[in-house]
Amino acid sequence: MPIRVALYARYSTDLQRDSSIEDQFRLCREYADRQAWTVGEDYADRAISGASLLRPGLQRLISDASRGRFDIVLAEAMDRLSRDQEDIAGLFKRLTFAGVRIVTIAEGEISEMYIGLKGTMNALFLKDLAQKTHRGLRGRIEAGKSRGGNSYGVTARSIKEEMSALEAREDELNATLATQDTAAQPLLMPNLAEVYRDKVTAPHELLANPSA
Q1: CB atoms near residue 4 (< 10 Å)
Q2: pLDDT digits (tens, 9 = 90+) for 30-61
Q3: Which residue in 24, 103, 149, 191 is deepest, having the highest Cβ count within 10 Å?
């Protein structure tokens, strides 16, 4: 009995073209021919992200798989089916339950071991990325640079100086907070209203009486 194959193709954004779908199908058909598989249905999602399984083409594929219309799902790569590891595991489970295998040109036949290893690799990659991002941000701050884009009214030099000043006063500030009476007026910024009023009043009086 011939092995029946369903093809799946997807591209993500409007910046890509329908030819991307045809290119993926062409590669899949060539692969299927080399395996002597019989190509039946093909399914496609155009300009739709792989971050969700809620795609018309993929949903139709899952529905037809449950009806036993094919034996294998063939795609160019696993990320054509999904980019989300949890969704990949769920899709693998549903298709396996329906007796359908997943094969990709890039990875070969997808197995339970592949799903587990892929999840572990993704987790390690994200952990490593977080550590490198944190290290990069710390390096930028220590070099006197902003953590991200330029902040209005704040220079890289002032950021570094303020951080150094706060670190130098850490023990003093902690001691002050520890002994602070919560019912009393805060000691770190006394008479804030008066300071603000003086800063606003002086320029106003100068503008009102320029000869003074």
Answers
A1: 16
A2: 999 999 999 999 999 998 887 788 999 999 99
A3: 24
Whether residue 5 contacts residue 72, with contact meaning beta carbons closer than 8 Å, is answered with yes
Strands 101-104 and 72-75: parallel
Class of the domain covering 4-110: alpha beta
By the 8 A CB rule, do 44 and 116 touch?
Answer: no
Nearest alpha carbon to residue 59 among 14, 15, 10, 17 = 10
Residue 107 has which token pair? 């990875």
Question: Per residue in 12-43, is it b (16+ CB within 10 Å) or e — as a string?
Answer: beeeeeeebbeebbebbbebbeeeebebeebb
DSSP class of residue 102 equals: E
- CA angle at 154 for the pair 153 and 159, rounded to the nearest 5°: 165
The residue to which tokens 């409007």 are assigned: 14
Give the domain ranges of the chain: 4-110
Prediction pTM value: 0.57
